[in-house]
């Protein structure tokens, strides 16, 4: 379809205006809290360690056109930003275009905008509070209406652990699933997507937290319960909006997890991808205590515009 035809494109214009206001508000909020906006390259030596995310591959050719190196378009700026934490930047944010292959639905697209922000010396509970403040600031409207559901961001947000959510919405004991069979994560997601996710984020937003440690590859374990990870997600009107970690800082543990993910990705998809050894070296040099969060800008724009399809809030 010739999306650039004025008679077709005009249906997006109001949404793009609201999206532009959203981006300005995000920057205003984070700058007021002394975050530095940075930009990292989309070209990375490693595609990361998320098992089920497929990266776009490309090739770097040297200036003499003789040497070649396989690179990847980043699926997230996370690793590059954490290197900047090691380098001494204490509070940083980035609004980046990221790329994920083998994606496509009304809420997924191969190229989309992601907001990530990181703060040293902030625990993940404090990051929850800051995320609430940011979303309340940028939404402006007190009530979000999307796909027949309403969410009032000014109400007290629901905070529920993953274990509590399985009991409340699926009448299932999480301990009966985790690690019990080789395909336990498939069982987890079948239950989560069918029974739990549709109930999250209305009539107020939901923060669901403390995932099994196996499901948070770059999160540190909870000191009080090492079987759980300091990970939370934000849902509004049943839509996943953000994913956050109390960040893992142990280089040896990170390398161990990278190797496990690398092996699993090869087993499932036949992909033998490199580990970012420079990141491991940076962590070993000294990764500061920090928390970080990734928020889907396009999805937040969808909610603000009551848009049914992610393409309705993207210019292209």
Q: What can you tell me about this protein's structure?
A:
This protein has 316 residues and is of the alpha+beta class. The chain has a single domain, classed as 2-Layer Sandwich (BirA Bifunctional Protein, domain 2). The chain is 35% helix and 25% strand. The chain contains 9 helices and 15 strands. The protein has helices at 6-9, 13-32, 78-87, 124-139, 162-170, 184-196, 251-269, 277-286, 297-305; strands at 36-37, 43-44, 57-61, 68-73, 91-99, 111-120, 143-146, 149-152, 158-161, 206-209, 221-222, 225-229, 231-236, 239-246, 290-296. The strands form 4 sheets. Strands 1-5-6-15-14-13-10-9 form an 8-stranded mixed sheet, sandwiched between helices. A 3-stranded antiparallel sheet has the order 2-4-3, with no helix packed on it. Helix 2 (13-32) crosses helix 4, helix 3 runs parallel beside helix 8 and helix 5 crosses helix 6. It is globular. The chain starts with 5 loop residues before the first helix and ends in an 11-residue tail after the last helix. The mean pLDDT is 96.
What is the secondary structure topology, with strand pairs?
Layout: H1 6-9, H2 13-32, E1 36-37, E2 43-44, E3 57-61, E4 68-73, H3 78-87, E5 91-99, E6 111-120, H4 124-139, E7 143-146, E8 149-152, E9 158-161, H5 162-170, H6 184-196, E10 206-209, E11 221-222, E12 225-229, E13 231-236, E14 239-246, H7 251-269, H8 277-286, E15 290-296, H9 297-305
Parallel strand pairs: 1-5, 9-10
Antiparallel strand pairs: 2-4, 3-4, 5-6, 6-15, 7-8, 10-13, 11-12, 13-14, 14-15
Helix pairs in contact: 2-4, 2-9, 3-8, 5-6, 7-8
